[in-house]
Amino acid sequence: MTRLTRRSLLVASAGALAAPAIGQGAWPSRPIRLVVPFAAGGSTDVLARLLADEVSRALGQQIIVDNRAGAGSTIGTGVVAAAAPDGYTLLVSVVSAFSVGTTLYKGRIDWHPDRSFAHVGMILRTPYAMIAAAASPVRDLATLAAEARRTNGGLSVGTSGVGSMPHLAAIRYARAAGIELTHVPYRGGAQAVQDAVAGNIPLAFDGLAGTTTFLRNGTARGVAVTSPARLPDFPDMGTFAEQGFPDLTIDGWAGIAAPAGTPRPIVERLAVALRDAMRVPSIVERYRGIASDMGELFLDDMQRFVAREAEIWAPVVEASGAQPA
Which of 193, 169, 164, 197 is nearest to 181 (CA)? Predict the structure, then answer.
């Protein structure tokens, strides 16, 4: 789906939202908890906090961010799935839990990506970037493969954890390239990126949004990006597709969800507040700064999207052979 098409969907989906019929004094009457299934400091966490501040103002109640990292973001996701459906516990839903984790951690989780949640809307859509430190000999996928062969599998890549989409993508790339990479799981992508920039690990694979600061200030080099075409902000970073790996044209995403059974008027009011928050000029500028798209799907459209994503990625995860920690 092109970015132009996605933005058109945003207009159509957001335009369909209207103020729900809910008593202004009924909800919320106390602070709301927003569970982020990553460690603090990553791009998704930062964006979620900015949006939470705007939505808080609209609702007249504080939104408290609660970071619950671990197990491919399925731990924090499970916390919300089990919470009371009263509108006071929300989730930053992420691709690693809903598209990958449901298959990777099958038998260990007791929630379903569709039936266990009332999806409010999408807050982020971004490709993934493989980066190295600016001084690294790795400049593109060809030099990456050469370095991996030279070190006999000693080249490591950091990601946000086992079961994350970058982990899965790294497995697919290494197999297709006929090389070995050592996976180094972190509790959040921000930590992996910082270690790669510092030269503590050779590579990091994370959402583009989490790498833009380092790519722009010259402390990191973009090795490859999973977007379908080169990005205007980073024209020197080649795509996986143009470097011979078309199957690695993928997007990451994040959204906001509530436990299934949350009253529809509450979910609708949240969707309206979320849509309005993403229109605030300072938030729009933040999206530009991380070279990413804002969400384009709300309510039923988001619900269908999440269900479909889980179905699409299940066979891919199974075929990857990835194993949970």
Answer: 169
What is the C-alpha to C-alpha distance for residues 279 and 312, in angstroms, rounded to an integer? 31
Q: How far apart are the first and last CA of the chain?
A: 33
Residue whose token pair is 């309206």 = 272
The answer to whether 84 touches 259, Cβ cutoff 8 Å, is yes
122 contacts 17 by C-beta, under 8 angstroms: no
User: Whole-angstrom Cα distance, residue 209 to residue 65?
Assistant: 20
- Residue 298, strand partner residues: 121
pLDDT digits (tens, 9 = 90+) for 242-255: 999 999 999 999 99
Phi and psi, residue 79, nearest 5°? -60, -45
pTM: 0.84
CA separation for the pair 267, 119 (Å, rounded) = 8
Give the residue carrying structure tokens 């070190």.
Answer: 151
**Rounded CA separation 264/75 (Å):** 25
Give per-residue burial for 14-36: e unless 16+ CB within 10 Å, then b: beebeeeeeeeeebbeeebbbbb
